[in-house]
Amino acid sequence: MLTPKEYQTRTLETLKQYFATCQKLGDADTAFYNLTKQIHGIGIPYREVKELPGLPYVCLRIPTGGGKTLVACHSIGIAANDLLHADAPVVLWLVPSNAIKDQTISALKDRKHPYRQALEEASSSVSVLSVQEALYVTRPTLTAGTTVIVSTMQAFRVDETEGRKVYEQSGALMDHFTGIEPALLASLEKHEDGKPVTSLANLLRLHRPVVIVDEAHNARTTLSFETLARFNPSCILEFTATPDTEASPSNVLHSVSAAELKADNMIKLPIRLETRPSWKELVGDAIALRQHLEELAVAERKATGEYIRPIVLLQAQPQAQHQDRLTVEVVEQCLLEDFAIPAEHIRRATGTDKGLEGLNLSLPSCDVRYIITVQALREGWDCPFAYVLCSVAEMRSSTAVEQILGRIMRLPSAKRKLREELNMSYAFAASQNFIEAANALEDALVQNGFNRQEAKDLIGKMPEKPQGGLEQFWTTSTETVKEVPKLDTLPASLAQKVTYDAQKGELTFTGVMDENEKVALQSCVTTPEAKASIERVFKKSHGLGTEKPKSPAERGEPFSLPVLSIKQGNLFEAFEQTHFLEMPWKLSECDPRLTEAEFSEKHFDGKVVEIDISDKGKLAQRFIPELQSQMSLIAQEKTQTVANLVYWLDRTIPHPDITPSETGPFLTAVVLYLVEQRGFKLSHLYHDKYTLRQKVTEKIEQHRQQAQTLAYQSLLLPECPTPLVVNPNVCFSFMPHEYPYNTRYEGSYQFKKHYYKEVGNLKHTGEEYDCAVFLDTLPEVKFWVRNIERRERHSFSLQTTTDKFYPDFVAMLTDGRYLVVEYKGQDRWSNDDSKEKRALGELWEKRSGGSCLFIMPNGKDLEAIRMKAQS
Q1: CATH 3.30.70.100 fits 6-256, yes or no
Q2: Confidence check: pLDDT of 445 > 90
Q3: What fold, for 261-461?
Q4: Which residues form the Helicase/UvrB N-terminal domain (predicted)?
Q5: Domain ranges in the chain with CATH number 3.40.50.300
Q6: Would you call the peptide bond into 270 cis, given omega within 30 degrees of 0 as the criterion?
Q7: With contact defined as beta carbons under 8 Å apart, do 250 and 238 qualify?
C-alpha cells in the first residue's frame, strides 16, 4: 500500500472538510465560500454551473508529478462516506483520451497497483468497468461495493456510436429498474407510458455517480456540462495541474505548490538550463552531462542500493517539405556517427515510431539512455529516469516543450538522493538567447501547474564547466593556494571533489564543503596562508562573501531544537498523542444517551422541501438533502435488526484505541436507548444511519477527549512516573532542502535572517508580518523560520490534548538559545485555545533548563519578544 504524501493527505483532508461542511449547511455554494475563507482568510465566490445547479463541483489543483490519480482514488471513499452516505457508490471516471483510459483501467483493475489498493482501502469490494462492460453490469455488482466506470468524455456524446449505446434501451439492464422506490422514478428518463428507459445513462442517474474528471481543463465546455447533467451526478471532482481560470473558471478548493512537491521528494528541482547556437555542441554537452549523472548514479547505487540510469529526451524538429530540418533521423544519425552512441542505447518515440512499445525502462537490463521524440511522448508515459531535456529546435514557445518538460521532473522512487545533481532536472536549448529559452521553459512550467513566480525561481543557468573536461558539472569554488597540497592523502570520496592547477596555483572544490572536508583539506597544507585560502574556499562554497549570500539552509547550516519528550526508564521519546492514547479507558461504562440536541427526530422525507431566494437573487434548490434522501432509498436494507445496525456502526466508525468488547455494549446501548426510550422506529434509524453514525462518532469522541484530557494532564505533573522533559538529545530538525510552503511571501521588505531562501505562508501586510519583520531586525536573533502549520515532518510542534500546536516563528539566538514565538491578536489572546498553547509553551520553556524560550505577545506588544530574547 502506497501511503499518501503529506501534501496529498492535506488535499484529501480539505475535500473531506468541504463535504462535511456541505452536509452541515446543505449548500455547496456557502460551504465553498466558508471553507476557503477559513483557509485563506478571504472567501472565494463559488461559480455554479447553470446546467448543474446546487452540485458540489470543485477542483483539486496538483502540479505535474504530484500524483493526481492516487489522490483521485482516495477521494472516492471520502465522497461516498462524507457526502453520499453510501456503502456502494458508483463512480464515473472521465479521462481526456483513449490511451489514458486504457492505462487507467489497467491500473485500477490490478490488485497490486497502488491505485487499486487506494480504492480498496475504503471499500472491500471494487469493480472497475469500461463503458462496454458497464452496458451489461448486474445489480448485485452495483450493490456489492464501489463500481468505477472509466471512459472518455467523448464516449458519452450522442453522435458517437458508443455514446448512442449509453442512452439506448438495454434488456441486459432491466433488472436494475424493477422494485425500485416510486420516489426514485422522478429523476429518471421515461417512455411515454411512464416506465423508465432501461439504459446505462438512466442507471447512472439512478445511482447519482461521483464524477472524477482527469485533466479537467479539457472538459469545461457547455457541451460537457450538458452531457454530465444527463447523468444526475452527486458531485464532480476535477483533478488538474492547470485549472481553467478564464472561459469557465473552476472552483479551486485546494492548490498544491511546487515547494510542497519538492519537500516530499516528488520532483527534481530546480531546472538547470544551457543554451548554445550550435545544435551539435549542445547535444555533446547533454551527452557529457548524462554520462556524468550516470557516474553519480553508480556511486549512489553503491551507497544506497537504488538503481538509476539517467536518460536524455532529445526533441527533434518535425519534417517539412523543401526544408532542411533537424528531424528524428538527423538527430539519431548524429548520436550514432558523431558521438558513437551504441544503437541499443537509442529509441525513437513519435507518432509512427513505437520504439518504447512493451519496454520497461526501469529494469537494469534495459540499455536505453537516449529517447528521440518530436512534440509529445505517449500519453501517460512515465519514466523518472528521464533527467535531461535537449531541444535541438529554437525554444521560443511553451507549446514546444510543455508536454515533454513534465517527463523529466519526477524524482526516481520519490526519495532524495545523496548526490545533489541527482535531485535536479536539466534542459539544453539550441538558442542564441538564454532569456528567450528560459521564458519558454517558464511558460512550460506554468502549463504543468506551477504558478508564475515559482516557475521563475525554478530555472537557473547551468554552471560554467571547468577547462579541461566536462566531468565536473556542478557549482565550483576556486581560490589561489601557493603551496601545492598533498591531495593523494585524501579519501577517495573527497579527492574526486578537489582539483589543483599547479601552473595557476589554484585549488578548485566542487559542491558545498562541510567542516570535516575543510579540516581534511587543511591538513594537506602546512602554511597559515594556504590554510586561510582553503578557509576562503569553504566560505565560497557556502555562498559567503559573494554578492548574493546564501541562506543558512542553502549553506547547509543545521537548525535543530529540542522538543518536549517523555522519559520512560532510561529512554527518551518525542512526546506525541500515542503516549496518552495508551492510557486505558472504558467506553462501555460511558453514557450512551443521545439527546434531542445530539440526534434530532426531524429527518428528511425524500422530497425537495425548500426553495430559497439567495442573496444573488437566484433560486437555490436544496441539492444536498435531496441527494442524501435518494441515496438512502437506493440503499434500503431488507434485514433491519438492532444487531445488524450495531455491527454496521462498529465496522464503519474508526476506533483503533477501543476494543470490540468495549464498543459492542456501548453501541447496543445507544440504539436501544433511541428505540426504547426516545421512541425511534428501527426503520428510521436505518434510513438515517449515516447521520446516526456521525452523531455516535461525535459522542464517542467526547468520551475519548474526556479520558485523554485526564491522561494528558497527568503526564504534565512533575510527580508523574513518566514525566515530560526537554532533553537536548531529542530534537526536531528543519531540513535544509525541504520547506513545503503553499504560498510565498512577496512583499517589498527583504528578509535577511530567514533560515530558508523563501519565506512561506506569510502575507506582506498585517500583524504577523509586523512580528516577522521585528524578529528579522532583532540583534539577538541569528536566524529564524516561518514555521508552516500542519507540516508534521517539516515543522516544529508541541502536542496538545487534541492536536499538534505549530507556533508561528522559531528562532535561533546568537547566544545559542532557541526562541519560539506564537503571535496572537489581542482579541484572541485570552481565549481557551490561546491559554492552552501558552501554558504548553511555557511548560516547554520551564523544563528546558533555560535553553528554550517561549513568548506569546499580547497583540502588538512586540517589545515583549525583545525582553524575552534578552532575558
Answers
A1: no
A2: no
A3: Rossmann fold (3.40.50)
A4: 4-244
A5: 6-256, 261-461
A6: yes
A7: yes
